[in-house]
């Protein structure tokens, strides 16, 4: 006789005798099964493979299967049963038993792919422990299924029926007997190689490896292996996507829940003492720019960079940790499906199956205005509020505001992700992730809880320290982006870029752009890290030397422009300059994150077009030194002179101003040229390849375009996030009168000014020296000496 159960209504409790009792929640008087210890011999003859098919089995089969689960070494009963539950969508019987494959009908498969390169000693030792032999299959007559995996007929214990349709899986497919003993690295190779695998079997194998690893580190915490944990997390991410593709939301949730508990947050982790780590990284003199951390995540977080602020919001008396980062386009493109899968799971199941720190947590998902909260400008000690904040908005009928997807884990924290759909997309915000959590959590808990939120949402191992291969991939990607921005964007918009082995990735890049072979040989080994924010490290490329050889002099930024030929008075600009001497030159997004809402010349347009996380500058060449400063389209009340070495942190640019847009296609370039038909024909040749030009070649294009155009100089060179004040070389004013006014204001604000080499020089924080210059009285032009280091 077949007994029906709704798996979602089962409870598992340990009795005084140590047995596991299984109850139906609707009737808890007597257990429907008791999981007693059975002999190891029985385990050897019975194992399970969880299948996504809904299969009816008898009560005795049910009890036998659960007994096998309960007695399997290192396996948590509730997690195994939850894996079974995850495949179900309604009231059904138990799923389960065995690798139900009719071997006689099974076509011969090709051998599995060759093993990956030899793992590191640390990983190898773990793999040896996880390579248990595959379980022997059960009888193939228990259940018959069609080639699509649906039930055709069942042989009941009491009343056997003949199965009429054998099980024939799709080809080619990795067989379970190959999957089970394979090391985790081999599983990853199969995943990224797109070999078909059943997600249920794949999940079972990963669970076994994860259970074995967690048993090892429980007995000996010194064996924690962060790289192996990352690999397991990424394998769970892959199987989650497989479940989602198959329409199995419960299997998807199971995989995400397991991945969320993969990372270890012990004392060796840099964010173990979360609040202390943030405090140590925050410079009291520039706390507005937050604390910065580098070398996190594998491939989702751009630049492997996290920013964390501690702030008080609204009427709170407690501090909140606010963690911010950007994700790549591949990761952002998947999030909608991931979030929808969470929405579609019944709340009672979702709450029960969340990982440990999120268990029974209510989750709400809404779309709300994207608000950068700010302080009352008249009360610097006030809390951050929306009332004194800023929401980017495009005027029109009706006006369009930026929005953000808000996922609240009630009582635990909030994760917000910039919206990437709508009439107007604010491209510079669409890849932003902002996570908030009450500060003062116990050691290890803050980071672990945040990571579990990220894992459930499919954001990956965000808080895992980056592996050496991840950092090498970022170096390769940066070189490709700097020298061939268009080609780089096309490739970085594919999963392959993040999954190919390093050597294969380099070969693919060289096949796309053969000149990259010389670029790799010249720059890759010489790349080093520099700080753009305290704690934020980026890969440095020695571009400035080559740009100077072609005629580059330095960068310049206009301060105080409030419109076309409209400029703020020196009194206002002086305050902005003093702030910049401390904080540096910040991008629009970075300024908004500090709570500074003074708009730049085109801040909202930059947010829409995608360039708002860049600092906008113009390049001055030897040929442009003779031009009047007013010819520079983006000049201001004061011109900030910046060392050309700033480009070594990585940059891109164009001979003309186009809001710092990224990912410009060839069609975009042709459209720009055709729309601006007043550009002289001899100048257009310097625009034809502007979307795929390195900063070194940009010098020639800027010179050529500006010389032929003879009009405004409107080139733009863009640097991400921040230019440190250590790279400021001077400020240039339009007249001696304006210089005198600036000196008077600086003195009133106790800013130190000294004469160095006959030049009035501002002595900024940490001894930074910034010369005060006046444009040539005859030509109103720059001169190269203004970029000299004092």
Quick recap:
The protein is of the alpha+beta class.
Layout of strands and helices, then pairs:
Blueprint lengths: L9 E5 L5 E5 L8 E3 L4 H6 L13 H12 L6 H9 L35 H10 L12 E3 L5 E4 L21 H4 L4 H9 L6 H21 L6 H20 L3 H12 L13 H8 L9 E4 L10 E7 L8 E7 L2 H16 L2 H7 L9 E7 L2 E3 L10 E6 L2 E2 L5 E2 L1 E7 L3 E6 L8 H4 L1 E7 L6 H12 L11 H16 L1 H8 L3 H4 L2 H11 L3 H8 L4 E6 L2 E5 L3 H6 L2 E8 L1 E3 L2 E2 L2 H14 L1 E2 L1 H7 L8 H7 L4 E8 L16 E5 L9 E3 L11 H10 L5 H4 L10 H15 L6 E5 L1 E2 L4 E6 L2 H13 L4 E4 L2 E5 L5 E6 L16
Parallel strand pairs: 28-31
Antiparallel strand pairs: 1-2, 2-3, 4-5, 6-7, 7-8, 8-16, 9-14, 10-11, 12-13, 14-15, 15-16, 17-18, 19-23, 19-24, 20-21, 22-27, 23-26, 24-28, 25-26, 29-30, 30-31
Q: What does this entry look like structurally?
A:
This protein is an alpha+beta fold and 790 residues long. The protein folds into five domains: 7-89, no CATH class; 119-260, no CATH class; 274-457, no CATH class; 468-526, no CATH class; 538-663 and 692-787, no CATH class. Helix content is 35%, strand content 19%. The chain is built from 27 helices and 31 strands. Strands 25-26-23-19-24-28-31-30-29 form a nine-stranded mixed beta sheet. Helix 4 (121-130) crosses helix 7 (199-219). It starts with 9 loop residues before the first strand and ends in a 16-residue tail after the last strand. The model is unreliable at 1-8, 37-61 and 72-172 (pLDDT under 50).
């Amino acid at each position: 006789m077949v007994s029906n159960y709704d798996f979602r209504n089962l409870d598992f409790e340990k009795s005084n005798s140590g047995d596991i009792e299984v109850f139906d929640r609707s009737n808890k008087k007597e257990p429907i099964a008791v999981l007693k210890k059975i002999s190891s011999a029985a385990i050897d003859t019975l194992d399970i493979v969880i299948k996504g098919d809904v299969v009816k089995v008898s009560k005795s089969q049910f009890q036998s299967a659960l007994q096998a689960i309960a007695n399997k070494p290192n396996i948590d009963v509730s997690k195994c049963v939850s894996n079974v539950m995850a495949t179900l969508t309604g009231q059904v019987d138990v799923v389960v038993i065995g690798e139900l494959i009719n071997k006689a009908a099974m076509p011969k498969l090709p051998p599995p792919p060759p093993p990956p390169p030899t793992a590191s000693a640390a990983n190898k030792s773990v793999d040896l422990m996880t390579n248990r032999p595959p379980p022997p299959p059960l009888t193939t007559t228990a259940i018959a299924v069609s080639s699509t995996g649906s039930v055709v007929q069942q042989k009941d214990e009491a009343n056997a029926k003949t199965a009429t349709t054998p099980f024939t899986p799709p080809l080619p497919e990795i067989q379970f007997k190959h999957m089970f003993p394979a090391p985790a690295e081999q599983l990853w190779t199969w995943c990224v190689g797109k070999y078909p695998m059943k997600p249920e079997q794949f999940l079972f194998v990963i669970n076994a490896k994860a259970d074995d690893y967690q048993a090892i580190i429980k007995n000996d915490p010194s064996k924690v292996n962060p790289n192996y944990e990352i690999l397991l997390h990424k394998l769970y991410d892959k199987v989650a996507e497989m479940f989602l593709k198959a329409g199995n939301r419960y299997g998807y949730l199971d995989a995400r829940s397991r991945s969320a508990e993969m990372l270890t947050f012990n004392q060796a982790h840099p964010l173990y003492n979360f609040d202390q780590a943030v405090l140590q990284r925050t410079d009291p003199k520039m706390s507005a720019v937050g604390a910065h951390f580098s070398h996190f995540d594998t491939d989702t977080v751009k630049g492997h960079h996290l920013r964390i602020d501690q702030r008080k919001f609204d009427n709170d008396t407690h501090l909140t940790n606010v963690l911010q980062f950007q994700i790549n386009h591949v990761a952002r493109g998947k999030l909608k499906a991931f979030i929808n899968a969470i929405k579609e799971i019944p709340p009672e199941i979702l709450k029960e199956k969340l990982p440990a720190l999120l268990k029974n947590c209510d989750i709400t998902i809404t779309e709300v205005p994207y608000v950068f909260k700010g302080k009352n400008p008249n009360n610097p000690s006030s809390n951050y509020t929306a009332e004194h904040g800023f929401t980017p908005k495009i005027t029109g009928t009706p006006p369009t505001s930026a929005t953000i997807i808000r996922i609240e884990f009630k009582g635990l924290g909030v994760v917000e992700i910039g919206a990437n759909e709508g009439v107007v997309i604010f491209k510079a915000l669409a890849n932003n992730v902002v996570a908030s959590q009450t500060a003062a959590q116990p050691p290890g808990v803050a980071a672990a809880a945040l990571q579990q939120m990220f894992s459930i949402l499919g954001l990956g191992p965000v808080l895992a320290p980056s592996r050496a291969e991840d950092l090498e991939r970022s170096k390769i990607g940066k070189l490709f982006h700097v020298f061939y921005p268009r080609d780089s964007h096309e490739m970085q918009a594919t999963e392959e870029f993040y999954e190919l082995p390093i050597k294969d990735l380099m070969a693919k890049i060289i096949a796309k752009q053969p000149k990259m072979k010389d670029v790799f040989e010249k720059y890759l080994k010489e790349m080093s890290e520099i700080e753009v924010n305290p704690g934020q490290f980026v890969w440095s490329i020695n571009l400035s030397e080559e740009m100077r050889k072609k005629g580059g002099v330095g960068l310049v930024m206009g301060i105080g422009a409030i419109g076309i030929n409209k400029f703020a008075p020196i009194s206002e600009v002086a305050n902005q300059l003093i702030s910049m001497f401390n904080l540096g030159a910040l991008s629009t997004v970075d300024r908004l994150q500090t709570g500074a809402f003074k708009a730049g010349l085109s801040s909202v347009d930059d947010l829409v077009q995608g360039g708002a996380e860049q600092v906008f500058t113009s390049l001055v060449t030897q040929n442009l030194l003779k031009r009047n400063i007013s010819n520079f389209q983006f000049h201001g009340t004061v011109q900030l002179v910046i060392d050309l070495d700033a480009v070594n942190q990585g940059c891109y640019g164009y001979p003309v101003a186009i809001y710092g847009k990224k990912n410009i296609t060839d069609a975009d370039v042709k459209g720009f040229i055709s729309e601006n038909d007043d550009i002289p024909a001899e100048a257009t040749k310097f625009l034809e390849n502007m979307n795929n030009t390195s900063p070194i070649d940009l010098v020639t294009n800027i010179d050529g375009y500006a010389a032929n155009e003879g009009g405004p100089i409107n080139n733009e060179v863009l640097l991400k996030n921040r230019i440190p004040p250590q790279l400021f070389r001077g400020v240039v004013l339009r007249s001696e009168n304006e210089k005198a006014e600036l000196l008077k204001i600086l003195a009133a604000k106790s800013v130190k000014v000294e004469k160095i080499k006959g030049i009035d020089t501002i002595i900024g924080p940490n001894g930074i020296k910034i010369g005060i210059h006046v444009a040539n009285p005859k030509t109103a032009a720059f001169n190269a000496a203004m970029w000299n280091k004092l």
